[in-house]
Amino acid sequence: MVLVTCGSIAEGRKIARAVVGKRLAACVNLETAPVESYYNWKGKLETAREYLLLMKTTTGRLRGLEREVRKLHSYEVAEFLVLKIAAGAEEYLRWIGEVTTQGK
Known about the structure:
By secondary structure, the protein is an alpha+beta fold. The chain contains three helices and five strands. Helix 1 runs antiparallel to helix 2. The two termini are 20 Å apart.
């Protein structure tokens, strides 16, 4: 599972379509309600309204997924956090693997 935030729904949709289309992720959920983010940037406390993408992929596709997200993302430093999945429905996890390996 990969977490990515972006500054607009349009940007989130563009990234989601690209990474699913290239089979770098099997599925991307775009949270259309904004999250309120607080962070330090260049020595200053900042706040922003952002949109969260939840990307389901495999370990083997992470490098390509990160490259594609960085290429399409508008931020100077894009969030790209990988969370290891401890368990899940066997059929769903198998589907993720199948989808992301087709067309490689």
